[in-house]
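Query form — protein Pyrophosphate--fructose 6-phosphate 1-phosphotransferase

QUESTION: What is the three-dimensional structure of this chain?
INPUT:
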Amino acid sequence: MNKSALQIARAAYQPKLPKVLKGAVKALDGDATQSVADQEEIKKLFPNTYGMPVVTFAEAGDVDLPAMNVGVILSGGQAPGGHNVISGLFDGIKAINKDSKLYGFLGGPSGLVDHKYVELTADIIDEYRNTGGFDIIGSGRTKLEKTEQFDSGIEICKELDIKALVIIGGDDSNTNACVLAEYYLQKQCGIQVIGCPKTIDGDLKNDMIETSFGFDTACKVYSEMIGNIMRDANSAKKYWHFIKLMGRSASHIALECALQTHPNVCIISEEVEAKKMTLAQIVNSIADVVAGRAAEGKNFGVVLIPEGLIEFIPEMKVLIAELNDLLSVTSDVKEALKGLSAASAAVYNSLPSSIAKQLTLDRDPHGNVQVSQIETEKLLIAMVKTRLAAMKAEGKYVGKFSGLGHFFGYEGRCAAPSNFDADYCYSLGVNAAWLIANGKTGYMSLIRNTIAPADQWIAGGVPVTMMMNMEKRSGEMKPVIRKALVDLNGAPFKALSDNRSEWAKETCYVYPGPIQYFGPSEVCDLPTKTLVLEQRNKK
Ligand code: FBP
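ANSWER: The structure tokens for Pyrophosphate--fructose 6-phosphate 1-phosphotransferase are given below.
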């Protein structure tokens, strides 16, 4: 493999671990738990894994444990740090017993079903330590939901003498990990299942999980790029940059990048929904900021747009929900469109044809509209331009508007993990090994107290059922881990709302620069502003 100078230096980085995970640990069980909502339904669906306690690890002294073979699966979109979860898991099971083996299932959950795997040896693992990407074994979005798939998993686990599976994924994949754990307990086949919280979107978090891995690095990469664009905007003084940021439904990435860079406008989808803002109102609010700056001779600026915005605009939300249901029973778009209500049909027909078409593209395997493929930034540029022309005609706008659209998403998903993600992910992996050794199943690997230095992090596990509620998916009510959207009463949103009128008017840009891997801790080990604001407020 050809390597850059940074890759070579970075390979030698030894991720920091919580003190407790530096040796053997034993599980201390807390009180019985219940799901965040819909307790009766979830209990009925998960009779074996419901109500289990939260687990905290404590030092165990010397222990003599048998070898254990483990299978690992990467599921869903890439997120920086996945390779470190795997290297932590590898080092963890080898520390437990040097004869343990790690198998990687190839191409995501389908590798388990189709029996495609590789044994991950020390040579392979060493090539991938502290690197971005999921290319060590590949990822995929196959949904594990059918008993035939689960049974096929049992076959290969028996063949390879696999004691446990570790599924590294987002809310949907971890939900499926729990369904699998429940099924394997019912079948008494002795295969444990552990999840790890992955997603750049930052929406897999709750009272227990402080952050999903990858969010830190992805936001830092996007913030660097936004800062560079801001400096260009402030130098050239002739463009308005509309930057759409990945993150699916949640606006955590847009919010974090706003806190890091201070844009002139940052739209938060959750606020749009709470205030029931129409598309026209969003456009008008941006146009007002453009006009306000133009009045002071500033015909430039930066607008951040969360990827999922379109789903939160009330009229669009109804339209998308109707399309989701209609397209779950037919793939014939023309046929599906006939089923729209009169109001949704009118909204659909009012959209530029390219955007309308993007709304009907294939859903992902979980039934979600693929928001990354909808060009909201272009839609907003076009509509703001039209609005400004009308304002000009009324004498309310004097200036020039030249909009440029960008979409940042894939640029950050495979970046080399920041120190935070490198340490957090490696810890999640080692921790998963100890959950397995302690006989746990249906748990997610849990590392807490993450704004403190790594040696003070708290390690343990949280039962997946504790994070579940019932939601409509592909037209049916299903148990799923509750997604965390931006909390409009939370400290990160408050930090934006307290400052945004100044950021709109003045030019307060901050230029974060590239992620630093070597150097002073106050530059290299900083967690996200979101994490600090949220956790500091909890204390
Ligand atoms: P996960 O939810 O699987 O972590 O994926 C995150 C994400 O990057 C979203 O931000 C984005 O909408 C989606 O994946 C894009 O999916 P794809 O990889 O299929 O293009």
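ADDITIONAL NOTE: The pocket of 1,6-di-O-phosphono-beta-D-fructofuranose is lined by residues 76-77, 79, 170, 199-201, 246-248, 307, 371-372, 409, 413 (CB under 6 Å).
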